[in-house]
Design goal:
Blueprint (H helix, E strand, L loop, with lengths): L9 E4 L5 E5 L5 E5 L3 H6 L9 E5 L3 H9 L6 E4 L3 H21 L12 H24 L5 E5 L6 H8 L4 E5 L7 H4 L4 H11 L4 E4 L2 H14 L7 E4 L6 H7 L3 H14 L9 E8 L6 H14 L7 E8 L6 H21 L7 E4 L4 H10 L2 E4 L9 H8 L5 E5 L5 H4 L4 E3 L4 H12 L3 H15 L4 H14 L1
Parallel strand pairs: 1-4, 1-6, 4-5, 6-7, 7-8, 8-9, 10-11, 10-13, 11-12, 13-14, 14-15
Antiparallel strand pairs: 2-3
Helix pairs in contact: 3-4, 4-5, 10-13, 11-12, 11-16, 14-17
Bound molecules: 6-O-phosphono-beta-D-fructofuranose.
The site of 6-O-phosphono-beta-D-fructofuranose has 7 residues, from loops.
């Protein structure tokens, strides 16, 4: 057990941790540090609380670091065997639980819960148990443990059995499936997921909608919440960090390069931009976004040559064939639109698939319109980041199925993400919005988007967990 005195200690558990390692050609280890809400949230606690982040080794570099005993203070990486991790992460978390919560199945043919699924489920249990045991070993008497996400749904229940003295929280960064979709899971698996979650003292969700969906599942399939409390914490954008980072030299350089790619109209005027930035994630709806843009060019020839769709679709979960296929379809469709409408001086879709945070910020700065049209999304931080960084004001075209819609819906142009014609109409409305209105809306969007910055988001959860 850690030496820090009890209740002040905070432990975080998540699949992906704040650092990762690569083995270089000369055999040395190279450390990469991640960002994101959790990293900046955790920094709010300060270092004297004996904070510990328990995460999984994800690649060979991470496993090598664990083997060599290399690590960062405050981080414990679990070297779960690669095959067990692959089954749990790719097989169950990303191919089943992610699909259920985002309602991504093509129902006529999937899901199929067969013997292979059962084998992978056993790995998911093993992987969750490894986390529960590590947390039980590390936590001081009465410490607070905040478990993150769908990868670790069984941990609260397992940990509760091992260490009834702990304050256990769980936070979901995804939507939660409504009962009629959740019940697709085999009954015993659905039970295990719910009782795992209900082992927590408190469950956090990004929006009321996802919290209500969980509560409905618990009521219908687990006899209710029992003593578990449910709360909502809508993670906001980190305005200070973003505004500063967006004006560093590398971002300025990217702006120049992007302007070059976007070009000017034949009579020399600046072109308008419709910007999107996503991981190439099945739920992000990048393909229908491109279809809507094509519809705009079809319906409104006056916008040809005058607008560019700047689409950044960064690689994600490339171990899964369905993600690779989706990435290929995004590229194919972008090329098709460029072949159909492009001219020697105008590339209608500027697509980049190589992750570059500085370039994303550059695109945020110059965006006239931001397109955020997921079919379902826990929150969507891009919708919150663009208005904060935007220079001239940016109209947000926002899916009503994104968690962010709960907070930003009034100032955005809302779309049904499946309706390509309506999305095209919203894009046009966005492009033609008077400057004054655009600037006013952006100001209000930025205020709503930064209402709960990461540090406060994390502290609120912690305080609520300890208060119960
Ligand atoms: O967006 C939801 C989320 O669970 C995030 O919390 C997390 O960053 C991401 O998805 C997981 O993605 P990955 O599979 O790349 O770790």
């Amino acid at each position: 057990m850690a030496s820090t005195d009890g209740a002040a200690q905070v432990l975080v558990a998540s699949n992906r941790g704040p650092v990762s390692y690569d083995v270089r050609e000369d055999g040395s280890l190279h450390t990469k540090r991640g960002g994101g809400g959790l990293v900046s949230g955790l920094s709010a606690i300060g270092s004297d609380a004996g904070t510990l982040w328990v995460c999984s080794a994800l690649g060979d570099g991470d496993r090598e670091a664990v083997r060599r005993g290399v690590g960062e203070a405050g981080v414990r990486m679990l070297a779960i065997p690669a095959d067990v991790h692959a089954d749990a992460y790719n097989g169950i978390a990303n191919s089943v639980l992610w699909f259920v919560h985002h309602m991504l199945y093509q129902i006529p043919l999937e899901p199929v819960f067969d013997a292979e699924f059962r084998r992978q489920w056993a790995s998911y249990e093993t992987y969750n148990r490894a986390f529960a045991e590590a947390l039980a070993e590390e936590a001081a008497e009465g410490a607070a443990v905040v478990v993150q996400d769908y990868h670790l749904t069984l941990v609260p229940g397992m940990l509760r059995e091992l260490r009834p003295d702990l304050r256990i929280g769980h936070f979901s960064h995804t939507p939660w499936a409504p009962p009629e979709y959740f019940r697709m899971l085999p009954d015993d698996v659905a039970q295990q997921v719910l009782s795992g979650m209900l082992g927590a003292d408190r469950l956090g969700f990004l929006t009321q909608r996802w919290a209500d969906a969980f509560t409905a599942c618990a009521e219908q399939f687990a006899g209710g919440l029992g003593g578990t409390r449910v709360g909502v914490h809508g993670l906001g954008a980190d305005a200070d960090f973003l505004r500063e980072r967006a004006h560093e030299a590398d971002v300025n350089e990217r702006i120049v390069a992007l302007r070059e790619e976007i070009g000017t109209t034949p009579d020399g005027a600046a072109r308008r931009t419709i910007v999107r930035v996503d991981r190439t994630e099945l739920s992000k709806n990048i393909v229908r976004g491109l279809l809507a843009y094509r519809q705009l060019l079809d319906d409104h020839p006056e916008w040809r040559e005058r607008v560019v769709h700047v689409a950044f679709a960064y690689p994600s979960r490339q171990d899964l064939a369905v993600y690779r296929d989706y990435t290929a379809e995004v590229q194919r469709l972008a090329e098709e639109i460029n072949a159909q409408y492009g001219t020697p001086g105008w590339t209608p879709v500027v697509l980049h698939v190589k992750d570059d945070f500085a370039r994303s910020l550059a695109a945020y700065r110059l965006a006239d319109v931001a397109l955020v049209n997921p079919v379902r999304d826990g929150m969507n931080l891009v919708a919150k980041e663009v208005p904060v960084v935007s220079e001239e004001g940016c109209v947000l075209v926002l899916s009503r199925e994104a968690g962010a819609y709960e907070e930003l819906g009034e100032e955005a142009l809302a779309v049904n993400p499946y309706d390509v014609v309506a999305t095209a109409r919203a894009l046009r409305q966005a492009l033609t919005m008077p400057e004054g209105e655009r600037a006013e809306r952006t100001k209000r969007l930025a205020a709503a988007a930064t209402a709960l910055p990461p540090a406060q988001w994390f502290l609120d959860q912690l305080n609520a967990l300890r208060a119960g």
